[in-house]
Each structure stands twice: as structure tokens, then as C-alpha cells.
């Protein structure tokens, strides 16, 4: 009983810490977060919504199964969502109409799979757009495809690839979080390039321009996010080892 209470309090303190950090450090600007409201032409905004919705529906099924099979995972789902919310709200202005920032989706993808993170990530984007005027509702589909779909898919694939090859788990966590971040911005660059092709060179020239600008800030941010995610993973392993064992991310003997 005391162990459960201790894990609950530790998780609650982590969520509270994220929220307090966000409130104390959120820059007071409302014009750059992901791809902002109204920036994409309507046909492209609709297209990315259509691409995103099937993943969201499958993600709802995945979360329902997780909660049904493991009701005690609800708080850990909240921690994954809070982690993504806070990290993706710490932004650096970049390409016009967008920004550079951590994404925080790698952790949730490793814990619960990429489909569950498509829901958590899109909810993060929705509340940021609705409450903080960061991003937008028309561009939510595009932002969700890059941050809540592709990023988690890359994170999950990289984690499984490295651990399957008997690589170190912390190396796998670092690589998953970092590459989820970078892949999100490659997709964002592609989305912007499709919507705004260069007069000379078309989509490829525009893609090279957007990706090159993003890379200046995004590469060091991706490395930092990878290191931070490893620290959070160490914390989870210390205080939520039982849940990690149930998720088959930790061997029982490693939790002792």
C-alpha cells in the first residue's frame, strides 16, 4: 500500500513540476507554435486532417485497451501527456509561421506505442491552440501528423530497433526521443514546402530551405530532448518500475 502511495505521489509531483515549470517559463508570445492558425492554404489544411484522423481513431482504440487491461496506467498516461505539453510549449521562433521546440512525444511512444501517442499528442496540440493561441484548429491536422503521428512512429521504431539489436536501453531512449524530434521537423518542412514551393526549384528547393533553417535550432534541441528524456526514464525506473514491468519495458529482475 505504501509502495503504491509512494509511486502515486512521485508521479503527481512530476506532473506538478512540469506544470509549474511551464507556468514560470512560458514566453509571452502568441504568434508562433507549430504551424500557426490560417497559415496553410485551406486545401492543404483539409488534406492533413484527412491523413491524421485514421491514426486518431486507432489511437483511441489503443488507449481504451491500455486502460481496460491496466487501469493503473492512467496516471502514467497523464505524465506522458504532460511531458509532451510542457516540452512542446517551450519554443524558439524559426521559419515564418512556425517555431522550433522540443516535442516530448518520444517518451509516450516508447511507453504506450505510437497510436496512443497520436491521441495524447493531438490533445496537447488542441489545448495549446484553444487555450494559448499556439498553433491553430485549421492547422491541427498538419501539426498532429508531424508531431503526434510521424514523430511517435519514428521513436517507437528506433527504440525497438536498438533494443532488438541488444543495444543499451538508455541509448535507445535517447535516440528515440531525439529522432522523434528531428523527424517532426522534417515533416513540418515538407508540409510547408508543399504549400509554398519555391519559384525556382519547386518543392525540393523549398524543402531544403525550410529544413536548413530549422536545423540550426532543432539539432541541439533534439539532443537536449534526448538527454532530458533519459533523465525522466531513470526517474520512472526508480519510482514506477512495476508499471514498466507490466508494459514489458523492464525485466522483473531489473526492478528489484
What does this molecule look like?
This protein has 256 residues and is an all-alpha fold. The chain has one domain (31-254): Arp2/3 complex 21 kDa subunit ARPC3, CATH 1.10.1760. Helix content is 74%, strand content 2%. It contains nine helices and two strands, in the order H-H-H-E-E-H-H-H-H-H-H. It has helices at 2-25, 42-69, 74-88, 105-112, 114-132, 140-164, 169-195, 202-239, 241-246; strands at 92-93, 99-100. A two-stranded antiparallel ribbon has the order 1-2. Helix 4 crosses helix 7. The radius of gyration is 18 Å and the shape is globular.
Task: Name the descriptors.
single chain; 256 residues; mainly alpha; Arp2/3 complex 21 kDa subunit ARPC3; two-stranded antiparallel sheet; 9 helices; 2 strands; 2% strand; globular
Amino acid at each position: 500500500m505504501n509502495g503504491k502511495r509512494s509511486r502515486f505521489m512521485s508521479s503527481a509531483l512530476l506532473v506538478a513540476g512540469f506544470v509549474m515549470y511551464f507556468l514560470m517559463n512560458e514566453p509571452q508570445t502568441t504568434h508562433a507554435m507549430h504551424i500557426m492558425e490560417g497559415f496553410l492554404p485551406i486545401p492543404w489544411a483539409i488534406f492533413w486532417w484527412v491523413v491524421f484522423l485514421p491514426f486518431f481513431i486507432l489511437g483511441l482504440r489503443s488507449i481504451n485497451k491500455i486502460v481496460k487491461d491496466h487501469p493503473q496506467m492512467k496516471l502514467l498516461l497523464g505524465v506522458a501527456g504532460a511531458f509532451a505539453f510542457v516540452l512542446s510549449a517551450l519554443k524558439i521562433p524559426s521559419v515564418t509561421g512556425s517555431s522550433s521546440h522540443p516535442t516530448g512525444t518520444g517518451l509516450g511512444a516508447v511507453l504506450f506505442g505510437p497510436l496512443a501517442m497520436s491521441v495524447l499528442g493531438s490533445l496537447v496540440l488542441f489545448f495549446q491552440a484553444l487555450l494559448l493561441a499556439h498553433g491553430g484548429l485549421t492547422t491541427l491536422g498538419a501539426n498532429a501528423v508531424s508531431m503526434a503521428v510521424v514523430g511517435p512512429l519514428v521513436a517507437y521504431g528506433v527504440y525497438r530497433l536498438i533494443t532488438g539489436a541488444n543495444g543499451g536501453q538508455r541509448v535507445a531512449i535517447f535516440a528515440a526521443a531525439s529522432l522523434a524530434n528531428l523527424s517532426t521537423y522534417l515533416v513540418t518542412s515538407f508540409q510547408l514546402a508543399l504549400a509554398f514551393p519555391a519559384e525556382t526549384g519547386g518543392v525540393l528547393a523549398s524543402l531544403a530551405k525550410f529544413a536548413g533553417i530549422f536545423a540550426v535550432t532543432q539539432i541541439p534541441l533534439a539532443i537536449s530532448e534526448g538527454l532530458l528524456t533519459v533523465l525522466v526514464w531513470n526517474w520512472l525506473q526508480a519510482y514506477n518500475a512495476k508499471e514498466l514491468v507490466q508494459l514489458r519495458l523492464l525485466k522483473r529482475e531489473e526492478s528489484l
